[in-house]
Fold this protein.
Amino acid sequence: MRQALFQEKYPIYTLEIDKSETSYGSVDEILAFFKSKIDAHPVVSYIGAFDHYAHTKSLKDGKISDQILGAKNILFCFGKELPSPCVLSVRPRSIGVAEMDDAFVITFLEAPNPMANKAMEDWALSIKDK
């Protein structure tokens, strides 16, 4: 799992998993796995899934890297407190899953809550076969 600044301002986590390192065969299977983790978590609420690939492909001027075969986000919220309206600016959470020729790339934006980051990192790392 790598931490980096995307576009020099967004703190993100990225994990690239070779297809040979996982028993998951598709973006949808990985999203279903993440949904099971979300559903089992006592605080997290599932919101939905977004097919970013299909959306971008449907746009007249949409551009998708030739390396990306599929890309979806799963949306959810860890919010158990709402101390100010500003919290809404960093919620909900999303994990992106992109399928490449030989790998899946899992990405998410760093959350202000360390517990949320730890959970998302653990979920992503558990995609790899042990």
Summary: Strands lie at 2-6, 10-18, 45-51, 70-77, 93-99, 103-109.
